[in-house]
Design goal:
530 residues; alpha+beta; 2 domains; four-stranded antiparallel β-sheet; 18 helices; 36% helix; disordered N terminus
Length: 530
């Protein structure tokens, strides 16, 4: 493959993993299938082509470079690092009411401050999944999420950069962020955009894209007055050579029939099943699954719920056989009778080194709202290059939050309702479920989370994981990150508006800098003691 971007990421990943790869005996080519590649699935071999169909009559203002499906994703335009994109969304009053009515059916009356149905606050004392383990894990009937039903799509108009996109699908998105915002009555709710969601109803927008992108996830930065935690997490994962979404700050203006209103700074996040896999893997045709539900814990006894817990998001044959193969490998009896055979079976279907590297970075970032505490917020991609499932991290608005009590005027609360600020990271067994899930040694993680417990119970894998933590020391450089925070803050500061005062913004950035320094020190203390 002659792709300089792809090889740049290979070299970056190799530099971080070379000793572990040689020690572990895994095939370098398979392990190093990382970010940067383009999909190799396009038909350019001269095969017979179907007869051309007449081109649709496009809406006024259509430009192939910004609206057409053939345009390459323009990352510089959509995900800039040096400015805040100004994006306006317009929904008719009628469709806005449909969105509100649908949300009321899902979460109850807006602004009531209560919970609904079988939902619970993430991190609370949930039921223990089959296989035992600590509380605060998967929830009966829906994993970590409050509802298994997504809010409805409605058509909208999107304006940006002097151009307009019509009949774009827009809906509310999210889990606790959405439900909390809805119950609190805020207008700034997380959103998702899909530019050809309504192409069957409006053939003139067939294949509509936004500078090469079909979808975007728009995080509303709840409880994050720095507006940068998503960006920080994804950029660190990307720097490590792991598959990671691109992000950028967007200021969203929303009009639902009562005049345009600036909602504030969102973080636009590249969608995994849209362009992430085609960018990060040499072949983007593999099966994509989003983990969300009881079986996403991979706990014993959850096999029958695999299809309900892993939403198929793409691929040529997403029949869940690859997910079942991973479940079977995790629970193979050889784990206790022939450890070498168990590891071989696991590595045949799963990129274990990618997972261990993510686990080390996630622990450092205190990414509690994911595997180890919650049975959601990750994807699995079946990489055609080696036939193994690769872990892709998702949803990082809660990272580096522990210890930020009072930052920016917002009191952060740890899962379970305990005020944050207690020692967490390197204290094995200390604190509640969140402290366990982000600890470095993971000694208190139980069998409810076998991809952590069973894997780190293997001395060889524990050694690899500790090696990943050592490498994360150079990645998580608090001095470099402090400078990065100031650079990100300078881009966002002119667009704060009435959302947050400059003093509160500065305080939040200072608090993020402080906890980053503390977290880096905790990691060094742990690594030095190994």
């Amino acid at each position: 493959m002659n792709d300089p971007v792809y090889f740049r990421f290979l070299q970056r990943r190799f530099a971080r993993r070379q000793m572990l790869i040689f020690a572990g005996g895994a095939g370098a080519a398979a392990i190093l299938a990382g970010c940067g590649g383009k999909s190799s699935t396009s038909a350019d071999s001269g095969a017979s082509q179907a007869p051309a169909t007449p081109a649709p009559v496009r809406p006024a203002g259509w430009h192939d470079d910004s609206h057409g499906a053939e345009a390459d994703p323009d990352y510089g335009m959509v995900f800039p690092t040096d400015k805040v994109n100004q994006v306006a969304i317009t929904v008719s009053a009628e469709n806005w009411q449909k969105m509100l009515d649908d949300m009321t059916g899902l979460f109850g009356a807006r602004g009531t401050g209560g919970t609904r149905g079988g939902g619970r606050v993430p991190g609370g004392q949930g039921d223990v999944p089959p296989g035992g383990g600590q509380q605060g894990g998967p929830v009966a009937g829906g994993g970590g999420d409050f509802t298994s039903t997504n809010p409805i799509w409605v058509p909208a108009t999107v304006a940006f950069n002097g151009r307009t996109w019509t009949n774009v699908g827009v809906r509310f998105k999210g889990n606790s962020t959405l439900s909390n915002g809805w119950r609190n009555g805020t207008d700034k709710l997380p959103l998702k955009l899909d530019f050809d969601e309504f192409e069957e109803d409006y053939p003139e927008i067939d294949g509509q894209r936004f500078y090469g992108f079909k979808q975007f996830s728009l995080s509303n930065n709840q409880n994050d007055q720095t507006f940068m935690r998503e960006t920080v997490a994804y950029s660190l994962l990307d720097e490590a050579g792991l598959p990671a979404s691109k992000t950028a700050p967007w200021q969203i203006t929303f009009d639902h029939g009562e005049g345009a209103k600036v909602l504030g700074i969102y973080t636009a996040v590249e969608v995994v099943d849209d362009t992430v896999v085609s960018r990060c893997f040499s072949d983007g045709s593999g099966n994509i699954y989003e983990g969300d539900g009881r079986a996403a814990s991979f706990a014993a006894g959850t096999q029958s719920q695999i299809e309900a817990s892993f939403q198929a998001e793409g691929g040529e044959n997403p029949d869940w056989s690859d997910i079942r193969a991973l479940y079977d490998a995790i629970h193979a009896t050889t784990r206790t009778s022939d450890a070498a055979a168990w590891r071989k079976g696991l590595e045949k279907v799963f990129d274990i080194d990618g997972f261990l590297e993510w686990l080390a970075i996630a622990a450092t970032l205190q990414h509690w709202d994911t595997y180890g505490q919650m049975s959601h917020n990750y994807f699995l991609y079946n990489n055609p290059a080696d036939g193994r499932l690769t872990w892709i991290s998702w949803d990082h608005n809660e990272v580096l939050a522990n210890g930020l009590a009072g930052a920016g005027g917002v009191v952060q609360v740890a899962p379970g309702g305990v005020p944050q600020g207690a020692p967490a990271g390197n204290q094995p067994g200390g604190g509640g479920g969140m402290n366990r899930s982000v600890s470095f040694d993971k000694s208190s993680i139980g069998t409810a989370w076998p991809l952590i417990r069973y894997v780190l119970d293997q001395p060889e894998y524990l050694a690899r994981y500790n090696g990943m933590l050592k490498q994360t020391l150079s990645l998580f450089d608090s001095t470099k990150l402090a400078a990065k925070y100031q650079s990100l803050a300078a881009v966002r500061r002119p667009h704060l508006g009435s959302e947050v005062t400059e003093a509160a913004f500065a305080s939040a950035v200072q608090a993020l800098t402080a906890i980053t320094k503390d977290r880096a020190a905790a990691l060094k203390t742990y690594v030095d003691a190994l």
